[in-house]
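Take a specimen:
=====
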Amino acid sequence: MLGLADRVSGMRLFFGLSLSESRMVFGRALCVGLLSLAVGCEEPTIRETVVPRERSGLDGPQFQLPGVGAAAGNAAPAAGGAPRGGGAMGPVSAGERLLIAMIDRPENTYFLRIQAAPAAVDAVRADFDQILQSLTFSGGRVAWKLPEGWTESEGGAMFRLATLRAPSGVEVFVTSLTAGQDVLANVNRWQGQLNLSTFAAGDTLPIERIQVGPQEVILYDAASAPSGATSASPNTPANGATNSAGGAPTSGAGASGPGVTTSGPATGAGTTGAGGGASAGEGRGELPFRFPALAEGWQPLPPSMVASARWERKDERGDLKLEVFKFPTDATFLSMLAIWVERIGAAAPTEETLGTAISAVTVAELPGELVVWPPSAESLPADGKRVMVVRLVHETHAWYIKLEGTATAVSEFEAGFKTFLNETTRL
């Protein structure tokens, strides 16, 4: 039998009232009940009122990096696992179109992204504009109203706040990144995903700036290059803008350490080296490093919402992925490693176990820390995975260079990874 205090506490949980408020409401209800018994009354009638639901948005990013303050505005992964929304969706198929709204706020930069066939995008464009015009921002929250017939679900992926779905099935992904995202870097990232050439500082970008109340919104609308075309092809954005940057440069190749090919500038500034090099795209104007090109078998991938540069190798030796990430310095090594090792199914590190696993390295004349996790591969199953991660601090950001793959492939490429680090230089 619950006592009065327990019942009042339960009321507080049910109604969301403070303890004092709950007691007041309970007391009044008791008085009314006694009065009704004294004077008699008709059988009470319950009136049900349906209140239309208005989406109020989600508090900050759904996923907060462990150890990273909310003031930093960090949405986290969903790690790397790139969301199909504000930026990193997997490769864009030939003929697909991207329609993206970018809204930079003091607390976060928000993205609303559609990736679909051009006709499908056209069919929901009016509704998309309606959603944009309904956006409001208050207290670190973003809010929107759905057009008639649309539905909504929680994000469910790294950095994704919500998925808005049209009756036709076309989806709008609402995502969040740290505030102050660079427009040029993001446009180049999207250009890379569409297999279009990238831009240099000072070029006219294929964007439109609109106002939602006092808030500026940047719109990017472009279609992917035809199948078989390269990023050096002329730009073909859906809104008719052209790329004045010209074709993406490439570099030559020669031999160097194990698994790495020496080349000309294979940097995040939009160049690619033979068999590797940083992906053209987001790195332009953002990556402070010049990376050596990787050996034959490595393929560059478009930058994702999380990774500034990416490469992968898939062959009989085992799959490998090499990625470069940029986070605020309060994204600690322990917090980031915990996210990545969870993805590969390994036991999470602690302060103590991480401390014993760290070794000092120097990359691009910057002191860094290197960790291989799990530290030992002996207890791993045949298909078990490992990561090798380097953390560098450059100016106001922490840069992570991560190699991930099957334990045997990581061990096989360990010398190549270290050569890659040794030959990385600063721009």
In short: Helices lie at 4-15, 19-39, 118-134, 183-193, 333-343, 351-357, 407-422. The mean pLDDT is 71. Residues 253-426 form a domain with the Jelly Rolls fold (CATH 2.60.120.1690). The chain is about 20% helix and 30% strand.
